[in-house]
Amino acid sequence: MNIIFLGPPGAGKGTQSKLLEDQYGLVQISTGDMLRAEVARGSAIGQEAKSLMDAGKLVSDALIIAMLKGRIGQDDCQNGFILDGFPRTLAQAEALDEMLKADGKSIDVVLFLDVDEDILADRISGRFTCANCGRTYNEVSNPPRVAGKCDACGSHEFTRRADDKRETVVERLKEYRKLTAPILPFYEKTGRLHSINGMLPTAEVTAEIKAALGEIPKITQK
Ligand code: AP5
Predict the structure, then answer these.
(1) For residue 16, which atom of ligand 1 is closest to its CA?
(2) Which residue, of 69, 74, 138, 196, has the fewest CB within 10 Å?
(3) Would you name the residues annotated as active-site residues?
(4) Confidence band (pLDDT; 50, 70, 90) for 73?
(5) Using a 6 Å cutoff on CB, does residue 158 contact ligand 1?
(6) Average per-residue pLDDT in the chain?
(7) From the CB of 144, is ligand 1 less than 6 Å away?
(8) What number of CA atoms fall less than 13 Å from residue 157's CA on the CB side?
């Protein structure tokens, strides 16, 4: 089963794909996380991406398609994956279909997390992430069970993203409206698009997603 999460910044793509990864044994592939790792390493990709990410702009299709192609070719993706943050443009969506077709594979379902724009900035500015395992929290809607301690791994260290400043979020939303929202019809016309109400509490969003996915046999080996 290969899944795509689509939705604006802060819609809950990372939160929900991490939950599905655990429950269905699929591999989450977050292009944003991959780029942030490249930036942290100071690699050539990271250097090219950093200023664009800091400005809330998308990185080039050529760079991101090459990066994604390398990732989904790896062994751990062969049982299925969840794409979080890819595709973001029509060119990326078309390239993805082509690269999967060449391997006799396809995207089974596209989950669009529908959230009103006016709550996204608040969600994003309240976001923080465990520095050890990457679990995402929110100051208001989703704090750790014990303040200052990660529910998943117990770490006490948390980070905030450089592009989560309000002015950058405005730019990210503009990029979403201009370049990413127009790919929804691409998936709608092939019957793969399911719209999910992303305004509900996290557990209810997960329940809607599971209903959309139906019964998928749990894959025990990644
Ligand atoms: P990326 O890292 O992909 O960021 P994004 O798409 O902007 O999405 P976010 O990670 O901000 O939000 P999310 O939907 O995952 O929400 P989350 O679950 O964290 O991309 C960053 C940058 O990298 C881009 O700007 C671009 O420069 C570059 N890039 C990446 N991929 C690219 C590509 N394919 N092409 C070109 N450039 C690319 O939730 C947000 C907050 O809300 C959290 O605090 C969470 O706890 C909370 N929350 C979640 N669900 C709920 C709920 N149901 N109710 C209440 N609160 C909730």
Answers:
(1) 18
(2) 74
(3) 13, 88, 127, 161, 172
(4) very high
(5) no
(6) 93
(7) no
(8) 4
Q: Which residue has the tokens 């082509």?
A: 98
Task: Examine the pLDDT at 106 and tell me if it is beyond 90.
Answer: yes
| 222 pLDDT above the threshold of 80 | no
Amino acid at 216: I
Ligand 1 lined by 13 (C-beta under 6 Å): yes
Please give the torsion angle defined by the CA atoms of residues 200, 204, 209 and 213, in that order, rounded to the nearest 10 degrees: -150
In contact, 105 and 79? CB cutoff 8 Å: no
Ligand 1 lined by 32 (C-beta under 6 Å)? yes
Q: Would the CB of 8 count as within 6 Å of ligand 1?
A: no
140: amino acid identity, one letter? V
Give the pLDDT confidence score for residue 22 in this predicted structure. Answer: 78
Of 189, 190, 208, 188, give the one whose Cα is nearest residue 198: 208
Q: Mutate which of 34, 59, 158 to test ligand 1's pocket (most atoms within 8 Å of Cβ)?
A: 59
Q: Which atom of ligand 1 is nearest to the CA of 202?
A: 53
Q: Is the pLDDT of residue 25 over 50?
A: yes
CA of 51 to the centre of ligand 1 (A): 18
Mean local confidence (pLDDT), 135-145: 92
Q: Which structure tokens are listed for 108?
A: 């089974």
Q: What is the pLDDT of residue 216?
A: 53
Contact 219, 210 (CB under 8 A): no
